[in-house]
Amino acid sequence: MDTHTQVGNQYNNRELSWLQFNARVLQEANDKKLPLLERLRFLGIFSNNLDEFFKVRYATIRRIVEAGKTGRSFLGGISAKDLLEEITLTVIDQQAHSLNILSNIQKELRKENIFIINEREITPDQSKFISEYFVRYVSPAMMTIMIGELDEFPSLRDSAAYLAVTMVMSKEDDTFEAKHNYALIEIPRTIDRFVVLPPQGEKQYVIILDDLIRHCLHNIFSIFKYETISAHMIKITRDAELDIDSDLSRSFIDKISKSVKNRSVGDPVRFVYDKSIDKKTLQFLLNKMGIDKTDSIIPGGRYHNRRDYMNFPRLGRPDLQYEHKEPLPIPGLSLQGSLFDKIAEKDYLLHAPYQTFMYVIKFLREAALDPKVKSIKITIYRLAEVSHIASSLINARKNGKDVTVQIELQARFDEEANIEYAELLQSEDIRLIFGVKGLKVHCKACLVERVENNKTIRYGILSTGNFNESTARIYTDYTLFTADQRICKEINKVFEFFEVNYLVRKYNHLIVSPHYTRKAIYHLIDTEIKNKKAGLPSGIKLKLNSLSDYKMIDKLYEASRAGVKIKMIVRGICCLIPGVEGMSENIEAISIVGKFLEHPRLFIFENGGNPKVYISSADFMGRNLDNRVEISCPIYDEGIKKEILENFEIGWRDNVKARVISIKNDNAYVKNNKPPVRSQFKMYDYYLKKLEVK
């Protein structure tokens, strides 16, 4: 086994396991069965994931090194310094692989008469178009900094792409003493990275903005006399962890705002450069920027910020994209009538994106207008850029409803958007709660109180995903609509905890972090162990985004050693090592990566033949179990329970069952195994058949 990856042969390292996940994203980009433009999108996702990884996880480990600590206890046995080196080597290998994949995709695009050209391939007609485009759109938005003569190097923006320009000066130019003059051009973010050129017959042409600028270098630097000029791309990634000050005189919104602004000048943690850059230019830049050996220095290709491939132009070629399928309705639940009347009769489950998220919008819209509704309470973690959720809440307040919003201002990389929404909601006289000190509020809950026959009846929504109509089109998530007063009463207790958080409530149905989740899951696992020993039906099925908590892993190992069969679908980080004799031989683990981001958390316990099923906002990570407010909700409706169990089996049956053992073995799996049959496509057919039966 790979000792670099494993800790005492019991766990996979969290960071290296995450890199395995991103390698599986890269596998999708390399899958020739997928439409070409979708493969480009996966390249963009791979790059975007890597940027966020360095901003947060790599930055955290680097802080440990700079503090003079080894971090072995935090990192599970591997030293922080060794881990930084391992990450850098792995990323260099993955980046090289991604460049080969991109090259192959471009060859396939050429067969489809789509040509991504560079500045050396431009025809005279295209040159004229490009020059006009540059003058009209690019030049006004471009930032060019002459750095050769500057005493202090300018602060580069986090994750922005720059062209490092080197001019070998002519002897006729006596303006500069040095033989070389240097400049930086920031690639404008306000302009599409891919510029579509006029077609030539059936052939379509696209030029990357970087190359368009390269073509116009002589225009930009026409005032200088130089013998040669060249431009190579660089970018830095900065530490994005928030440092929140303790000034009691400032509001929480102000503190978060300041911390988010400081993120733009955080220490650099990764420097990526075009490996063909001149060595003298590279050293000049490293010296000026103060980049040292604790930073990750990655030689890359000609282009960076390949996350932009997520928005590659569609070029009117639906044949090179996923087939579009409209979200389906929930059988038996119409968007035309009253949702409250139907939910009062039975629970309903929404499985996005296969079924339309409009049910959530409709629920809030109806609550905003219904004279029987007196109050709405909701948790918000991430909202869409243009949010119908927010407008529905404002509408409800204008109609005299009591609206309470718990908004999480520290939702990573959505802090600015949430601050803006907090200020908007506050201006509309909506009551805001900014969480619990020391805890993020990550649960997704909504509660409506309605007066019926002089009694207050509660209606609730609990979800595994955010109340966000944009992500609901690409994230798979479960959302439960219920009027079960046992559950709704306990949702209300969670909101009471937000208000008076020194009182810990008791729950008989919901499992709530940070006070109860760990203990409750341990108890459920212990029950399966007892049932196995007693000869009763036993088993555990889990669907998670991440599994990294060592104590929880040890508990699953204990169940495995007792003979309990465990099946896990873990999309991302998996620190548990399955299939090891004497430790985890009864555990199987797979990962599903495909068209949609697998986001639900499911906990299924066989319970002697009467399965207990929970949907949850919590992963099995220390932060979800101990440092966040999370809700796991039992499914009591037998029809919904059956549906969830069937969905799990579809996901399990139709995907390659690859054990996550080590970075070495997992990369070999990604490289050599055929892509799986994707359950995500079969899930749509599953719901279509349910509608036909209805």
TrEMBL record:
PTM entry text: An intermediate of this reaction is the autophosphorylated ppk in which a phosphate is covalently linked to a histidine residue through a N-P bond.
Co-factor(s): Mg(2+)
Protein name listed in UniProt: Polyphosphate kinase
The keyword Magnesium belongs to this UniProt entry's keyword annotation: yes
Function: Catalyzes the reversible transfer of the terminal phosphate of ATP to form a long-chain polyphosphate (polyP).
Enzyme active site: 442 (phosphohistidine intermediate)
A Gene Ontology BP annotation from the UniProt entry: polyphosphate biosynthetic process
EC top class, as a word: transferase
Alphabetical UniProt keywords: ATP-binding, Kinase, Magnesium, Metal-binding, Nucleotide-binding, Phosphoprotein, Transferase
Entry binding sites for ATP: 49, 475, 571, 599
Reactions it catalyzes: [phosphate](n) + ATP = [phosphate](n+1) + ADP
Pfam families: PP_kinase, PP_kinase_C, PP_kinase_C_1, PP_kinase_N
InterPro entries in alphabetical order: PLipase_D/transphosphatidylase, PP_kinase, PP_kinase_C_1, PP_kinase_middle, PP_kinase_middle_dom_sf, PPK_C_dom2, PPK_N_dom, PPK_N_dom_sf
Cited NCBIfam families: poly_P_kin, PRK05443.1-1
Enzyme Commission code(s) on record: 2.7.4.1
GO molecular function terms listed in the Swiss-Prot or TrEMBL record: ATP binding; metal ion binding; polyphosphate kinase activity
GO cellular component, one term: polyphosphate kinase complex
Occurrences of domain PLD phosphodiesterase (ranges): 594-624
PANTHER family on file: POLYPHOSPHATE KINASE
